[in-house]
Write a structure and sequence with these properties.
Layout: H1 2-19, H2 22-31, H3 39-53, H4 60-79, H5 85-95, H6 98-120, H7 144-151, H8 158-167, E1 172-177, E2 180-185, H9 188-196, E3 201-203, H10 207-213, H11 223-234, H12 240-262, E4 266-268, H13 269-286, H14 291-308, H15 319-346, H16 356-362, H17 373-404, H18 406-422, H19 431-436, H20 451-462, E5 467-472, E6 476-478, E7 481-483, E8 488-492, H21 493-497, H22 537-554, E9 555-559, E10 566-567, E11 573-574, E12 579-584, H23 587-601, H24 611-621, H25 629-642, H26 655-663, H27 710-727, H28 732-748, H29 752-765, H30 770-782, H31 786-802, H32 811-824, H33 828-841, H34 846-858, H35 862-875, H36 880-892, H37 896-909, H38 914-926, H39 930-943, H40 948-960, H41 964-977, H42 982-995, E13 1012-1013, E14 1019-1021, H43 1029-1045, H44 1052-1061, E15 1067-1068, E16 1074-1075, E17 1077-1079, H45 1080-1090, H46 1096-1114, E18 1121-1123, H47 1124-1131, H48 1139-1152, E19 1162-1163, H49 1164-1178, H50 1185-1188, E20 1198-1199, H51 1201-1208, H52 1218-1227, E21 1231-1236, E22 1243-1245, E23 1248-1251, E24 1257-1258, H53 1260-1265, E25 1267-1268, E26 1278-1283, H54 1286-1325
Parallel strand pairs: 2-8, 14-26
Antiparallel strand pairs: 1-2, 3-5, 4-12, 5-8, 6-7, 9-12, 10-11, 13-25, 15-16, 17-18, 19-20, 21-22, 23-24, 23-26
Helix pairs in contact: 1-3, 2-5, 3-4, 10-15, 12-13, 12-22, 13-14, 13-17, 14-15, 14-33, 15-17, 17-20, 17-22, 23-26, 24-25, 27-28, 28-29, 29-30, 30-31, 30-32, 31-32, 32-33, 32-34, 33-34, 33-45, 34-35, 34-36, 35-36, 36-37, 36-38, 37-38, 38-39, 39-40, 40-41, 40-42, 43-52, 44-48, 46-49, 47-48
Membrane topology: Single-pass membrane protein
Family: Belongs to the cytochrome P450 family.
Function: Catalyzes three successive oxidations of ent-kaurenoic acid giving gibberellin 12 (GA12), a key step in gibberellins (GAs) biosynthesis. GAs, which are involved many processes, including stem elongation, play a central role in plant development.
């Protein structure tokens, strides 16, 4: 049977060969395996072929019958998924080219994969047969694509696993990576050989890496030079003596940072830890502690590191291009520092502390040669990079691993507690104690390495340094293979540290594996090995130990996204930079406090807080809020629902549940009372102004000419001759020099308009030269043209940045002057950015720091202002302006006594400092020290006799001091100086001062005050239109904010146009939520367009109010980015336009956000978040408590515009107060004739509130504050009716009188009737 089948198959193949065309044979045989194996299909093919061969046969009837039967049977098989002959023949013509294409692709791949082999191996001759196994990859890119692909997944080890799987674990594999043919070594023995054999291997970092780190750093210099520099630089960061010097600074910095982070809420933990380690290394190397400078430099280092492991593609958009720009900025900053330090040494300016920069500048070899600037900068750049990246990442991962393994955390914590117990009271951490963290006392059963177990295990698991690069000096034999001369060698640390034969279960964090274990050479390489061992490893471990010591004793970390993906390039880190919250766990702060609170409110001592006990706790936590029963019930419902797992039956919330509520952000019962704002002083603390683009012209003769005078005409004519001579010079360069010389002379004599013409001509001659643009910008600023000045400085900046290091010395001053010109336009936030850039490039630029502090004060960021100004004063102790601004910032923060001292210091430095004298006078007035205030204002007037504000405030302070006659004279002088509206404010202030009664010897003056304050429950309203007292108080505050920001001048339709016309790119928050977010300076530009009618100084005040009130709430994380859609929605209610239109634009702004864009509905979560933001921003009595509880924030349902309006207008949970605000907008200019407020005696403007029983009237302010005249203090309650205008009041009075008259007439009619009846009765009796 088999033989018969075989014969049939042969016959079948012969028929195919003889019958089918040649071009179909290949396709047919390709398709045959896919055809059915049924014999009918084969017979069908035979029948088809027989037809082709028997065309001359006469017996067609039999053939046709057989053919029909076979085709019918074939069609039955087709229904089962088989091929028909017709289909096969048609498909054959289509698919005949497919194998050829596939074959061609395989051939092309083979050729391309052999290109690198031909290029690099063909020149080796017979040595190529002894190369390690591997794959040199594609031309140019080599194996970088699979490397990057693997390291961007969750399994980076898949890259090296492909080699070990294909070629076995022989420890060496040839590759082509980072632009060079290379050999990867993956075993401890081969790594140790490569790292320690300096005769065979030298540093071989890729060209791209050396371009970023520096060719004259450790990775690019000779062996002898490396030994010399290492010996010089390693001493200050290693050894007992060096570490003893820095341990106290490190501990102080760590303690301060942890305390600060615990108060910041959610932070990017890795980012802040890196800033901490960078601060430490900057102090050690450059004695720099300026926070602004270090933050900016650390950001540049971040960009630099992303490019180190990236492909060297220098095109915009690639990481390497961005890294090169970061290096350029870092080099410019370090160059400035080196130059300044060299100048100090030339001037014999000594410093108390000698840092690494001093050592590098003073270093000399045996021939007396010193290091040049490039060598110093490259060494600094390398050390500062390595000195904070590894420590920062290790601290972050060690903290995460400890928090994820409670048993390990407890064990490490107990070790630290034992160390603390042995410490003397008040003593700080010592170096000896850090050594004790390695081994505990011998009395313990186990010899523990303590922290170093944790640190070493962390270093092993994360393997911060992926690889080290070496280059073979000559052909090197290793493990039977040859590494050719010039080839790179990559020691793959990660494969060593995660080798299961060395470390069982290698990816598990298990510090116990180090107990009694000593790593063999080459098996543990976190800091390298051999002569290139990391010189700062002792310092790094000290930093990590100190941080973990304090962290374990007092803090814990709670990650926001524990399952966040991990990125492995350039270093292993969570994608969200470990978004987390740092909380205190010290016995004296949170746990003990919560325990005391629990015991205090657990009245029945049953171990739980019932609803009654919890309601008492809620009231105690919020002493200034008066809750209704419904509010307390709603709060308790939310608490008991959220923490249901901690509810113990009828007993209520357990102690653990209460502790969890506090960990989640609940309040405390011992909140301090906030300092109330003082509104009594007329003066406002300001900051001194500086003319930025100025030169020292004290010894120059300043010329003042009238442009219409004859002398000026002659001068212009002679100047024209000089310019013509300059234009007629032999070359452009000489003409340029001539115009620049003319411009400088004119500028020195303050002839700015004429100087500008010369500098503009110089700009035309050499457009890419920085100097004429810079000088032209100075002239324009001096002429008051801030916008044109800004444009010139931007041109100068562009020219300087494109010119390389040639104009590096001018960059800081360009940034400073650019910031000053922006301040002239009112753009203070943008100015801050440029001042920061200047301080980064030149850390000792005290004027940049001073201007930065002044600008930060101007936007209400007082703490940051204090830091910048203190740094400026540290650099220039006799800087009077900086002292003045620092004192103003301290006053704004409430540190009045310290502010007085700093103001006095500024006056001592410059006795005629008007701003210091004026603001000190305002401070004394705030404190009620009126005599001292009047003295300060008198000193201001001695310097500036026409200072009308000082004269006015002098009158106020004299009145406060009781010198009435002197006050009257001062007020008359002020009236002579000006007739401005501020005088009315002064009158208001005088009356407010009269309301304060001075206490003498503990007894009050017996006179009764001008008003009494009545509790809100006694204020009743008459009529539906009368505003409630609490609502009016909140609305007045919102209206005051609206006036300061001038948002009412911005039509709400302008917001809609901004959303329609300007495209904002979508970014992602740490939680992965898409946002249209922008930086604050960009937002400032948008506000400038919206409020383009405002003057610069007015716009500055508006920005300050917006930043303090709105941006601080929207940017609660401190990232500096604002959700633009939410910002538009928040300001829409205060913009100009009809009330309904404002609500519609707010809804459209929420629709504009990425989560809702393209829909007609918004999510309920967004709606609730928006309403709560409105209340948190505008209703200050609510404050951030509104943000602690966002109702429905996880609700994914959507709401329409009408539903949104219902939520918005809700009087209790919404923003229904907007109706009252709109009422104030329409009425706040209405006057009520001669009607005055019965309390403040001011003419009533706006609404008048009339007490219906006694008839006295109150203004908006007095009504909202609950003030009534003392003559009516005996009333049990007060009923008020609101009148919007005097016409409305007269109409109401007329209606009342009409009713009274009608009532009187009715009574008279009744009396008449009674009299008639009486007369009839008398007649009857008579």
């Amino acid at each position: 049977m088999r033989r018969e089948d075989a014969g049939r198959r042969r016959q079948f193949r012969q028929v195919l060969r003889s019958v089918f065309p040649e071009e179909l044979k290949f396709s047919i045989f390709v398709l045959l395996p896919k055809l059915s194996t049924m014999w009918e299909t084969k017979q069908c093919l035979i029948s088809y072929s027989l037809k082709r061969t028997q065309t001359n046969s006469t017996d067609f009837s039999r053939w046709e019958l057989k053919k029909k039967r076979l085709i019918a049977k074939l069609n039955q098989t087709r229904n089962k998924g088989q091929f028909t002959v017709e289909a096969m023949v048609e498909t054959g013509s289509i698919l005949m080219w497919l194998p050829l294409v596939v074959l061609g692709l395989f051939v092309l791949k083979w050729v391309l994969k052999r290109v690198n082999v031909w290029i690099y191996e063909s020149k080796l001759g017979e040595k190529k047969h002894y190369l390690p196994p591997g794959d040199l990859g594609w031309p140019f890119i080599g194996n970088m694509l699979p490397f990057l692909r693997a390291f961007k997944t969750s399994d980076p080890d898949s890259f090296i696993r492909t080699y070990t799987t294909r070629y076995g674990r022989n420890g060496l594999y040839k590759v082509h990576m980072f632009g060079n043919p290379s050999v990867i070594v993956t075993t401890p023995e081969t790594c140790r050989r490569v790292l320690t054999d300096d005769d065979a291997f030298q540093p071989g970092w890729p060209k791209s890496t050396m371009e970023l780190i520096g060719r004259k750093s450790f990775i690019g210099i000779s062996f002898e030079e490396h030994k010399r520099l290492r010996r010089l630089t390693a001493a200050p960061v290693n050894g007992h003596e060096a570490l003893s010097v820095y341990i106290h600074y490190i501990e102080e910095t760590v303690v301060t940072a942890l305390e600060k982070w615990s108060k910041m809420g959610e932070i990017e933990f890795l980012t802040h830890v890196r800033k901490l380690t960078f601060r430490i290394i900057m102090y050690i190397f450059m004695s720099t502690e300026s926070e602004h400078v270090m933050d900016a430099l650390e950001r540049e280092y971040t960009n630099l590191n992303y490019g180190v492991r990236a492909m060297a593609i220098n095109l915009p958009g690639f990481a390497y291009h961005k890294a090169l720009k970061a290096r350029k900025n870092l080099v410019a900053a370090f160059q400035s520092s080196v130059t300044n330090r060299r100048n100090q040494k030339k001037q014999n300016v000594s410093s108390n502390k000698k840092d690494m920069l001093d050592n590098l500048i003073d270093a000399k070899d045996e021939n007396g040669r010193t290091l040049d600037d490039e060598e110093i900068i490259d060494v600094l750049l390398m050390y500062l990079n390595a000195g904070h990246e590894s420590s920062g990442h290790t601290i972050m991962w060690a903290t995460i691993f400890l928090q994820e393994h409670p048993e390990i955390l407890q064990k490490a914590k107990e070790e630290q507690e034992r160390i603390v117990k042995k410490r003397a009271p008040g003593q700080n951490l010592t170096l000896k104690e850090t050594r004790e963290m390695e081994y505990l006392s011998q009395s313990l059963l186990l010899m523990e390495r303590g922290f170093y177990q944790v640190i070493d295990e962390t270093l092993r698991v994360i393997t911060f340094s992926l690889t080290a690069f070496r280059e073979a000096k000559s052909d090197v034999r290793m493990n039977g293979y040859i590494i050719p001369k010039g080839w790179k060698v990559l020691t793959w640390f990660r494969d060593v540290h995660l080798d299961p034969e060395i470390y069982p279960d290698p990816k598990k964090f298990d510090p116990s594996r180090w107990e009694g274990y000593t790593a063999k050479a080459g098996t543990f390489l976190p800091f390298g090995l051999g002569s290139h061992l990391c010189p700062g490893n002792d310092l790094a471990k000290l930093e990590i130990s100190i941080f973990l010591h304090h962290f374990l004793l007092k803090y814990r970390v709670e990650r926001s996204n524990p399952g966040c993906p991990v990125m492995f390039l350039p270093h292993t880190r969570p994608k969200d930079n470990c978004l987390a919250k740092i909380t205190k766990t010290t016995p004296g702060s949170r746990s003990e406090k919560v325990k005391r609170i629990f015991q205090q409110f657990d009245g029945n001592r049953d171990g739980g807080l019932s609803r009654e006990e919890m309601s008492a706790l809620v009231v105690a936590v919020n002493p200034r809020v008066k809750f209704s029963d419904e509010q307390i019930s709603a709060i308790l419902d939310e608490v008991f629902r959220t923490y249901a797992e901690f509810i113990d039956g009828d007993r209520g919330l357990t102690h653990d549940g209460l502790l969890r509520t506090y960990d989640d952000g609940a309040g405390d019962v011992d909140h301090g009372k906030p300092k109330a704002d003082n509104v009594d002083a007329v003066s406002e603390a300001g900051w001194s102004r500086e003319l930025g683009p100025s030169s020292d012209s004290s010894d120059k003769r300043v010329i003042h000419w009238e442009e219409s005078s004859h002398d000026y005409t002659v001068f212009v004519k002679e100047l024209g001759v000089l310019r013509s001579k300059a234009d007629g010079a032999r070359s452009k360069e000489e003409a340029f020099d001539g115009h620049m010389a003319i411009g400088r002379v004119l500028y020195e004599h303050q002839l700015f308009k004429e100087a500008l013409v010369s500098f503009k001509r110089a700009c035309e001659l050499q457009p890419t030269d920085v100097r004429p643009h810079f000088r032209a910008g100075n002239c324009l600023y001096a002429l008051g043209k801030c916008k044109e000045s800004k444009d010139e400085f931007l041109l100068a900046l562009e020219a300087a940045e494109s010119g390389g290091n040639q104009w590096g010395y001018l960059l800081p001053q360009i940034y400073v002057n650019l910031g000053i010109s922006l301040e002239g336009e009112g753009m203070v936030l943008s100015a801050c950015e440029y001042y920061r850039e200047a301080a980064i490039l030149c850390p000792r630029h005290y004027r940049a720091l001073k201007l930065l502090g002044s600008a930060l004060f101007g936007v209400g960021e007082y703490r940051a202002a204090v830091k910048a100004l203190e740094e400026a004063i540290y650099l220039k102790p006799d800087y009077a302006d900086a002292h003045c601004d620092l004192a103003s910032s301290l006053h704004a923060m409430g540190e009045d006594e310290r502010a007085i001292e700093v103001f006095q210091r500024a006056i001592d430095l410059k006795p005629g400092h008007v701003d210091a004298l004026y603001n000190l006078g305002g401070l004394y007035m705030d404190l009620g020290r009126f005599q001292r205030a009047s003295e300060m204002y008198a000193r201001v007037l001695a310097v500036w006799p026409n200072h009308w504000r000082a004269q006015l405030n002098k009158a106020v302070s004299l009145l406060g001091a009781g010198e009435t006659e002197e006050a009257k004279r001062a007020l008359k002088e002020a009236l002579k100086m000006t007739n401005r509206v501020e005088l009315h404010d002064a009158i208001s202030h005088l009356k407010q001062l009269q309301k304060k009664k001075v206490k003498t010897n503990g007894n009050s003056v017996n006179e009764e005050g001008p008003f009494i304050v009545v509790e809100p429950s006694k204020f009743k309203t008459v009529g539906e239109k009368t505003t409630l007292r609490p609502d009016l108080a909140a609305a007045l505050e919102i209206r005051a904010f609206q006036r300061v920001t001038r948002l009412g001048k911005c039509d709400v339709e302008a917001l809609r146009r901004e959303m329609r016309d300007n495209d904002v790119p979508v970014s992602y928050s740490g939680n992965g939520v898409p946002l249209k977010s922008i930086r604050k300076p960009t937002l400032e530009e948008i506000l400038r367009r919206l409020l383009n009618v405002l003057k610069p100084e007015t716009f500055q005040g508006a920005i300050k109010a917006v930043n303090e009130r709105i941006l601080t709430v929207l940017d609660d994380s401190g990232s500096g980015r604002i959700d633009l859609g939410m910002f538009y929605a928040v300001i829409a209610p205060l913009c100009g336009g009809h009330q309904n239109k404002r609500k519609r634009v707010a809804f459209d702004a929420l629709l504009w956000r990425p989560g809702n864009e393209g829909s007609s509905r918004i999510t309920k979560a967004d709606a609730f978040k928006y309403i709560n933001l409105l209340r948190a921003v505008y209703i200050q009595s609510q404050g951030m408590s509104e943000m602690l509880e966002v109702h429905g924030e996880t609700d994914a349902s959507t709401v329409t515009f009408n539903q949104f309006l219902g939520m918005y207008d809700d009087s209790e949970w919404g923003f229904g107060i907007m109706t009252t605000v709109v009422k104030l907008e329409t009425r706040d200019r209405n006057r009520h004739g001669n009607q005055v407020c019965s309390v403040c005696r001011y003419p009533i403007i706006g609404s008048r509130f009339k007490e219906v029983k006694t008839g006295f009237g109150l203004c908006n302010q007095c009504y909202s504050e609950g003030k009534v005249p003392p003559a009516f203090k005996q009333q049990e309650e007060y009923s008020f009716r609101e009148y919007g205008s005097e016409v409305e009041a007269m109409k109401a009075n007329f209606e009342l009188k009409y009713l009274l008259i009608m009532e009187l007439s009715n009574r008279l009619m009744l009396i008449d009737c009674e009299m008639v009846n009486l007369s009839v009765f008398v007649k009857r009796i008579g």
